[in-house]
Amino acid sequence: MTYAEAEDILSVAAQWRADGEQVAVATVTETWGSSPRPAGSRLAITASGKMAGSVSGGCIEGAVADAAQMTMTTGAPQLLDFGVTNERAWEVGLACGGRVKVFVEKLA
Known about the structure:
Oligomer: single chain
């Protein structure tokens, strides 16, 4: 993901927020091995279920969206860690041999 693409996701998130939606932004902070998206990739999620961008090419997006819903409810940011040693990785489809860390925060 290029810098311009990441900024576009933030613009979309800001517009959703301006429209009155609750919004969370997830950002890939670290990768290792075979990872579908590079560090800096972003996903914006609304409480109503809209999504823009990607943190994984699909394999962990559902789990990240669930975490984003919790973050919007509680206001507490989360650092998610998915990898082949993580039992949850198989559940969400990240059996590709890599590891990815995703930071989820509520957009104020």
